[in-house]
Structures are given as C-alpha cells and as structure tokens.
C-alpha cells in the first residue's frame, strides 16, 4: 500500500498513513499514522507549526510526501501558507514551485 495523506480537521493536522508495522495496526485497516503536520487555520490562511514522523518510519521519505500532500491540498483549497514549521519551510525552499503559496509580502520573513 502506498502512503496516503489525509486532513484531520478535528485534530488540526494532516496525517500520513503507512502500512502498519506488525501488531501496531491501530486503525484496523492495515495502516497506521506514521506522522503528522499540525496547523492552525484562520481567514484563508493555513499556518504549519509542527511536523513529526514516527522514528519507526524514518528514512522512507514520508516527511516529504506529507509536506507535498498537505501543500497540494492547501493549493486546491485556495489557502495561503505560513510555514512556521522548520520542516515545511525547508521543504518549500527545496521545491520553489510551492513558494507561490506563501504570500509574497511574507516570503522574506520565512527566508523564501
């Protein structure tokens, strides 16, 4: 199964779901939450504040998949992105095709 990114608005975060590790199938569908990107949503803006990948899933590129999925969803929803989270900010820096999501007047504040 390919990892999937899902918005969990009730938790104010995007989660990346990956194939469950043996007994850890907490969702009952063969997947478990491998990581998340927390956000605050307000007035057409989404502020990413913290991203975390479970160490058991490290080194598989899930952080990048999570960032891409969350940012693609923000774009589809017409949201402006405020990357306070160092991981999301760094990911955007490495993928300049996403810099347009950050309001131009605020890019310098984020080093973009």
From TrEMBL:
The species this protein was found in: Streptomyces amritsarensis
Show where the N-acetyltransferase domain sits: 1-112, 6-103
Matches recorded under Gene3D superfamilies: 3.40.630.30
Q: Which SUPFAM superfamilies match?
A: Acyl-CoA N-acyltransferases (Nat)
Q: Which PANTHER family match?
A: BSR4717 PROTEIN, PROTEIN NATD1
Q: What is this protein called?
A: GNAT family N-acetyltransferase
Q: Name one Pfam family in it.
A: Acetyltransf_CG
């Amino acid at each position: 199964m390919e990892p999937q990114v899902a918005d969990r608005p009730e938790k104010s975060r995007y989660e990346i779901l990956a194939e469950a590790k043996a007994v850890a199938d907490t969702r009952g569908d063969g997947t478990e939450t491998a990581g998340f990107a927390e956000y605050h949503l307000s007035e057409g803006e989404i502020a990413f504040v913290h991203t975390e990948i479970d160490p058991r899933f490290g080194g598989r590129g899930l952080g990048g998949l999570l960032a891409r999925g969350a940012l693609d969803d923000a774009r589809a929803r017409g949201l402006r992105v405020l990357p306070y989270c160092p991981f999301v900010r760094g990911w955007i820096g490495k993928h300049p095709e996403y810099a347009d999501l950050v309001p131009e007047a605020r890019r310098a504040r984020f080093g973009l």
